[in-house]
Amino acid sequence: MELLGIHHAAIICSNYPRSKHFxxxxxxxxxxxxxxxxxxxxxxxxxxxxxxSQVELFSFEGAPSRPxxxxxxxxxxxxFKVDNVTKAKEYLESKSVAVExxxxxxxxxxxxxxxxxxxxxxLELYEV
Length: 128
Prior knowledge:
Layout: E1 8-13, H1 16-26, E2 30-37, E3 42-48, E4 54-59, E5 78-82, H2 85-94, E6 103-104, E7 111-116, E8 122-127
Parallel strand pairs: 1-4, 5-8
Antiparallel strand pairs: 2-3, 3-4, 6-7, 7-8
C-alpha cells in the first residue's frame, strides 16, 4: 500500500450557514457538492482546494463542543499551504478574522500562523 496524499478533512460545525460562508467566501474554497439529508436534519458540503484536496463540512444537531482548544485528543489543527503567509494573514484580517502573529518553524525555517473557524477549530497557514 502507498498513501498518495490526504483526500479530505471532515469538520462538524455548529452553525451551517455561518461555516459555509466562512469556508466558501472567506477561505474561497470551491463548493463541489451540497446535500441536505432530511432524515438527519443535516447538511454535507464538499469543498475543494486547487490541489484537489477537500474539506467536508457537516452539520449535526446536538453535536458536542470541542473539549478544549487546541490540546484535545484527536485532530489538533488543519493546515493550509499558502505561497505567502504575510499576504494571507492580511487578507484574513481584512475580513475580520483574528490571526495570530506569524512565527517561524524552528525546524524548516518556514513561516506559519494560526487562526480559527467560526467554531474555534484551529486552522493554520503554512508557507511553502
